[in-house]
Amino acid sequence: MSESTTPTDSPNKWVADHTRTYVESGGEEGHLWYGPDGSLAEGVPTLLLTTIGRRSGQPRRTALIYSQDGDDYLVVASKGGAQAHPLWYRNLVDNPEVELQVKADAFKATARTATPQEKARLWPKMVEVWPPYTDYQKRTDRDIPVVVLTSVS
Predict the structure, then answer these.
(1) What string of H, E and C letters represents the secondary structure of 38-91?
(2) Is the terminal CB of the chain with fewer CB neighbours within 10 Å at N or C?
(3) What number of other Cβ atoms are within 10 A of residue 128's Cβ?
(4) Three-state SS for 51?
(5) d(Cα 78, Cα 58) in Å, to the nearest integer?
C-alpha cells in the first residue's frame, strides 16, 4: 500500500466519525466502541482495516469489531446479515495485503478467509465479543466469513 495516499473512510457517517476519532487519538479513543448512539454499556474492541479498492486501486479504511486467536486478529464480514459481502471483504479477497491499526499500533498484515474447520472454532469467539453475529447469520443465506489477519511486520 502506498504510504502517501490517505485512505478513504466509510461513507457511513458514524463509521467515518469513529474512524477519524480512532486515528486522531492514536487509538486512545475509538478502540472500544460503544455503538453509534453510545448505547453499549461495555465497549467492544475495534481495529482499523485498510484494504485496496479492487476497482479504484485506492486505500479504503473501516473500523471493525475484532477478537484474537493467538497472534492473529479476527474480524467478521457480516454487513449486518446483508445478502452481499461487505466491500472491504471483496477488496481483501482480491488483494490480501492489508494494513491494520490496533490502538496506536499500525502494521501490515495478510488477510485470508478462515477454512470451514477454522470457522467452527473461531465463530464462537466472535459471537462472544458481538452476540448479534448469530442473528446476522440467520438473516442471510450466505455463509458469513471469519477473516484471519496475520501481521507481516
Answers:
(1) CCCCCCEEEEEEEEECCCCCCEEEEEEECEEECCEEEEECCHHHCCCCCHHHHH
(2) C
(3) 10
(4) strand
(5) 23
Asked whether 120 and 151 are in contact (CB, 8 A), the reply is no
Q: Considering the entire predicted model, what is its pTM?
A: 0.93
Task: State how beta strands 44-52 and 32-33 pair.
Answer: antiparallel
Please give the backbone phi and psi of residue 144, each rounded to the nearest 5 degrees, phi first.
-70, 120
Which amino acid is present at 121? R
Q: Would you place residue 12 in the very low, low, confident or very high pLDDT band (cuts 50, 70, 90)?
A: confident
* Residues 62 and 7 sit within 8 Å (Cβ to Cβ): no
Q: Where are the alpha helices (DSSP H) in the chain?
A: 13-24, 87-94, 116-129, 132-139
Model confidence at 3: pLDDT above 60: no
Give the span between the Cα atoms of 141 and 49, in whole angstroms. 25
- C-alpha cell, 147: 477473516
Give the Cα separation of 23 and 13 in Å (integer): 15
Tracing cell 459481502 back to the chain, one arrives at 85
